[in-house]
């Protein structure tokens, strides 16, 4: 208690935490030097790197200082007040975050309700988007279809490839290669989606002609891979571009998970006489499964909500194409971006309504991912 | 079934660092050979060269000969995967596959080799679990995850998993160091039973344990930190602990260093 | 590993192994056959040649290995070749992305481009620059960071240092939920507020949407970093009678500060590339507007989009789009590299 009192008095006199370094060192006459040494070098950095955390809280401890009379109680209350202020601030931030989430749901729902009540057609099943006229008619059927199809293609392409690359980096590549490659993949995950969009529109699209022709020739009979020869700005191209875009994201998280597979598990398999692939199947993949799922969901979330990469590549239309190769269709996010410019207030509300649907879908996907991970954890007992 | 191991002039490296140097010894079949020595003297590294597990460590490299029966484990054309089937290993910390049930853990090695027949699989699993003195404790919960067992039970599960593929040799890398005394006793008893069928090599930090379980004991030491570890001597356990021929061994055993 | 191809001798440990050059031989053969077939069938796209070679390589490996080495080894080899093929196939587009951006971006990227706006340049004409867009992005992202970083860090502190009970659980859950919000939805949310108050697009509205996207990222990364701080440090400080809040400020935060900074910088890099909410809320503006609180502004990602969309195929506009993309990537990469540098330099372990 004695130390506590002395400490808080110093604190009060010191005022702003800029002097923290100065005060931390002379006080270190007590034993247990290890933890004391810790804050000293770091605290110098505190004021400039977390400007927000410190100034906010700094005034609180200073206030009680001018009351020198109350020697016995002042330190205690100051301590408690400092704690209370700090707790209040941090808890307040948490509550603010919740409030923002609630506000998003409430406001989007409100505007969406305004729009849907004006809609002269069924909002869910209509194949049309004309919300600006006095007799608005609009529905999300095409958008929902396009969003799901493009994301499914993206996932089908990206997840296996990403898992393979992650395995390549952790278990196959020569060590000297894998470090730098992992670093580059990490950086690629940070490339803005608009750049992927630009590249997709100007580089990928022309390259798709050959593939589309080939698919049409050999798999055109399936119907969904038939091609009438339009520009290859179709759902398949969008799906592939989205796959390329989310590939680094999924790869990074999966690689991180695979790297954390305990050596003991891999050696257990090795010592039983397992080949490299069998080691991966017996210990790496089971351990990493929930991580890969959550990585995939992360990627799926990005694919579902991706705006610019789709808007630049797709040539949209408000109908559903039977073939993945013929241009047309649309996604929620792409439609919002392309129709926003021409929308009046009513039109914007309609776009908000479609955005709300997208929001709900992403929430469901995230929720499902979390459920899967929670279940896996219980079963694997990896935390035991 | 058990086979003799003959090691000749074996050195092992981590990258450029030489971990053990020029080790030659013979491990008799159907006996327990214990490796003792101070930390870092390369006993575990040496153990891992005996089933080619050393080379899975990045930069791991081996020179010299390890004859299992009449075959050199490091000879040309030898498949490390088959070596590891013949020479099983139990690790310091029990490492059952966390996502597999107790049954699947024991069956894991068999399934690799394509033994899929349900009935024979169940038989071998039971035999192996009995062999590891674990059957009575787990027979009612074979489908529960192996990670739910206690540490000692997990270690015996790992032993069951290792003997299920019927190896010629069983290597144990400090198998009791993570266990409590009672579990340790159970494992030591088990080792005594297993040596009827297998060639067993055990690394241990615990000299009493070496004295209790082993027939022969090898003492490893290193001249200085950073120097490669060497085999100082190998002899009957009784002799090593009563009247070793090298003074270093005596000093180590009587607790004067290490 | 063996270096020679030997047939299985009676010895139990000997497995028949393919020689080390076998995979290369199979790969070369596969490529050769793919090229031959491609030429014969008149396939123009290199992508198809590559795909064909990949398929041939995997099948060839399996057939050869299954014949010589047995099924288990064959599976192992196929897995290896699939992993290599996947890697090589994925590298092509990603490298192309970087390559094209750099090669096409440097064409018009110069001092003039960085210091001039589009004010007097029509979309399809050459000339002009991105000064207005850089200014807009800097202001919008800066304001968003000022909002999101403190809230995010404080929330993380709450979750790690104080968080127990239903409120903390709710916050954790909704931070997760928030991470998944598509950027365009965040934009729509602010848009709905603007519709309420009948506001016209302005820079700060974009900042608010970006802040919403940034907050959960900051919370998550800060949380991770705070959790890395060993509990012994906290206990040592608390045991000395240091009040909790000072322990956090003086012990916990300084220890984790490197990681927190890294997290914030990575979050900045992420939102700097966001164009969707900016499109809805800031609208874009070819003129320089240095006031984020009034009037439409430009932004770098939005600039790229608009150059592409409004250009009607003009190469001048495409060149500008690439140059702006290169600038944006360079900015994001520098942020990333610096952030990682800090993380490496100041890890709490």
TrEMBL record, chain A:
All residue ranges annotated as the ABC transmembrane type-1 domain in the record: 144-369
UniProt cross-references to InterPro entries, sorted A to Z: MetI-like (IPR000515), MetI-like_sf (IPR035906), Phosphate_PstC (IPR011864), Phosphate_Transport_Permease (IPR051124)
Top-level lineage group: Bacteria
Protein's recorded name: Phosphate transport system permease protein
Region described as Disordered: 1-78
Record field: compositional bias (Low complexity): 40-60, 68-78
Gene3D superfamilies cross-referenced by the UniProt entry: MetI-like
Source organism (scientific name): Streptomyces fragilis
TrEMBL record, chain B:
InterPro entries from the UniProt entry: AAA+_ATPase (IPR003593), ABC_transporter-like_ATP-bd (IPR003439), ABC_transporter-like_CS (IPR017871), P-loop_NTPase (IPR027417), PstB-like (IPR005670)
Gene3D superfamilies: P-loop containing nucleotide triphosphate hydrolases
Protein name: Phosphate ABC transporter ATP-binding protein PstB
SMART domains in the cross-refs: AAA
Gene expressing this chain: pstB
Coiled coil start-end: none
Iron keyword on record: no
Domain ABC transporter: residue ranges: 5-247
Keyword Transport attached: yes
A Pfam family the protein falls into: ABC_tran
Alphabetical UniProt keywords: ATP-binding, Nucleotide-binding, Translocase, Transport
GO molecular function: ATP binding
TrEMBL record, chain C:
Protein's UniProt name: Phosphate transport system permease protein PstA
NCBIfam families named among the record's database cross-references: 3a0107s02c (TIGR00974)
Keywords, ordered alphabetically: Cell membrane, Membrane, Phosphate transport, Transmembrane, Transmembrane helix, Transport
Coiled coil (UniProt feature): none
Functional summary from the UniProt entry: Part of the binding-protein-dependent transport system for phosphate; probably responsible for the translocation of the substrate across the membrane.
Recorded family membership: Belongs to the binding-protein-dependent transport system permease family. CysTW subfamily.
Membrane topology summary: Multi-pass membrane protein
């Amino acid at each position: 208690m004695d130390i506590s009192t002395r400490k808080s008095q110093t604190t009060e006199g010191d005022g702003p935490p800029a002097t923290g370094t100065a005060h931390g060192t002379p006080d270190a006459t007590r034993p247990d030097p290890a933890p004391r040494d810790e804050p000293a070098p770091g605290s110098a950095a505190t004021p400039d790197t977390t400007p927000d955390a410190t100034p906010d809280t700094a005034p609180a401890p200073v206030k009680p200082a001018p009351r020198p009379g109350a020697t016995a109680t002042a330190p205690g209350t100051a301590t408690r007040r400092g704690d209370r202020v700090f707790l209040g601030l941090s808890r307040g931030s948490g509550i603010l975050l919740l409030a923002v989430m609630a506000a998003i749901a409430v406001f989007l729902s409100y505007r969406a309700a305004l729009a849907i009540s004006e809609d002269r057609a069924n909002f869910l099943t209509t194949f049309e988007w004309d919300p600006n006229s006095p007799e608005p008619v609009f529905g999300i059927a095409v958008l929902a279809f396009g969003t799901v199809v493009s994301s499914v293609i993206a996932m089908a392409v990206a997840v296996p490839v990403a898992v393979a690359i992650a395995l390549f980096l952790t278990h196959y590549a020569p060590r000297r290669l894998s470090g730098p490659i992992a670093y580059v993949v990490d950086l690629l995950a940070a490339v803005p989606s608009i750049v992927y969009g630009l590249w997709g529109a100007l580089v990928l699209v022309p390259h798709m002609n050959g593939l589309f022709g080939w698919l049409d020739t050999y798999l055109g009979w399936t119907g969904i891979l038939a091609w009438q020869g339009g520009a290859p700005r179709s759902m398949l191209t969008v799906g592939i571009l989205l796959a390329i875009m989310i590939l680094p994201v999924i790869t990074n998280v999966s690689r991180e998970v695979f790297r954390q597979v305990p050596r003991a598990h891999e050696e257990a398999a090795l010592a039983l006489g397992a080949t490299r692939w069998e080691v991966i199947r017996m210990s790496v993949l089971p351990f990493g499964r929930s991580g890969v799922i959550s990585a995939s969901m992360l990627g799926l979330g990005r694919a579902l909500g991706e705006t610019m990469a789709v808007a630049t590549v797709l040539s949209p239309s408000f109908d559903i194409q039977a073939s993945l190769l013929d241009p047309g269709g649309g996604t929620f996010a792409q439609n919002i971006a392309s129709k926003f410019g021409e929308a009046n207030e009513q039109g914007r509300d309609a776009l908000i309504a479609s955005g709300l649907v997208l929001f709900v879908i992403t929430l469901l996907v995230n929720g499902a991912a979390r459920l899967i991970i929670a279940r896996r954890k219980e079963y694997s007992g990896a935390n035991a | 079934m058990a086979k003799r191991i003959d090691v000749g002039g074996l050195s092992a490296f981590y990258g450029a660092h030489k971990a053990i140097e020029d080790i030659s010894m013979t491990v008799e079949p159907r006996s327990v050979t214990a490796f003792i020595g101070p930390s870092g003297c390369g006993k575990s590294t040496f153990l891992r060269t005996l089933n080619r597990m050393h080379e899975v460590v990045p930069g791991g490299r081996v020179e010299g000969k390890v004859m299992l029966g009449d075959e050199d484990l490091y000879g040309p054309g030898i498949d490390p995967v088959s070596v590891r089937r013949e020479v099983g290993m139990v690790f310091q910390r029990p490492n059952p596959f966390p996502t597999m049930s107790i049954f699947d853990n024991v069956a894991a090695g068999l399934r690799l080799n394509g033994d899929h027949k349900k009935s024979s699989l169940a038989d071998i699993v039971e035999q192996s679990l009995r062999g590891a003195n674990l059957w009575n404790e787990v027979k009612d919960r074979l489908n529960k995850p192996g990670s739910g067992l206690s540490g000692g039970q997990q270690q015996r599960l790992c032993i069951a998993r290792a003997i299920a593929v019927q190896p010629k040799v069983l290597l144990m890398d400090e198998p009791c160091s993570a266990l409590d005394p009672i579990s340790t006793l159970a494992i030591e008893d088990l080792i005594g039973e297993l040596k009827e069928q297998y060639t067993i090599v055990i690394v241990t930090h615990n000299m009493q344990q070496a004295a209790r379980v082993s027939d022969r004991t090898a003492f490893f030491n290193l001249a200085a930190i950073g120097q490669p570890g060497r085999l100082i001597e190998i002899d009957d356990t009784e002799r090593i602990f009563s009247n070793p021929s090298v003074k270093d061994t005596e000093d180590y055993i009587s607790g004067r260093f290490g | 590993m063996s270096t020679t191809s030997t047939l299985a001798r009676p010895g139990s440990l000997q497995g028949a192994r393919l020689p080390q050059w076998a995979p290369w031989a199979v790969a070369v053969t596969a490529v050769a056959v793919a090229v031959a077939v491609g030429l014969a069938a008149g396939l123009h796209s290199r992508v198809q040649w590559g795909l064909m070679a990949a398929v041939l390589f995997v099948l060839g490996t399996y057939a050869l290995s299954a014949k010589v080495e047995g099924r288990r080894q064959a599976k192992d080899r196929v897995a290896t070749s699939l992993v290599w093929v996947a890697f090589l196939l994925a590298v092509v587009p990603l490298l192309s992305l970087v390559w094209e951006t750099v090669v096409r971006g440097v064409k018009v990227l110069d001092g003039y481009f960085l210091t001039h706006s589009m004010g007097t340049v029509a979309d399809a004409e050459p000339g002009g620059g991105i000064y207005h867009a850089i200014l807009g992005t800097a202001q919008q992202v800066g304001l968003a960071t000022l909002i999101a970083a403190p809230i995010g860090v404080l929330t993380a502190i709450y979750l790690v240092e104080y968080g127990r009970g239903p409120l903390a659980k709710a916050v954790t859950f909704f931070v997760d939920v928030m991470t998944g919000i598509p950027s365009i939805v965040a934009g729509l949310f602010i848009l709905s507020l603007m519709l309420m108050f009948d506001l016209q697009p302005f820079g700060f509205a974009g900042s608010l949407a970006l802040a919403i996207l940034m907050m959960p990222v900051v919370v998550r990364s800060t949380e991770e970093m705070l959790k890395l701080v060993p509990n012994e440090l906290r206990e040592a400080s608390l045991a000395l009678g240091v009040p909790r809040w000072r322990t956090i400020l003086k012990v916990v935060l300084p220890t984790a500060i490197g990681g927190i900074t890294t997290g914030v910088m990575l979050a900045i890099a992420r939102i700097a590339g966001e164009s969707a909410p900016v499109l809805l809320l800031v609208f874009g503006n070819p003129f320089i507007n240095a006031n984020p609180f009034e009037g439409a502004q430009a932004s770098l990602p939005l600039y790229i989009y608009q150059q592409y969309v409004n250009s009607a195929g003009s190469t001048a506009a495409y060149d500008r789009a690439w140059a702006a993309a290169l600038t944006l990537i360079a900015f994001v990469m520098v942020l990333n590299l610096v952030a990682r540098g800090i993380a490496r330099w100041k890890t709490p372990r």
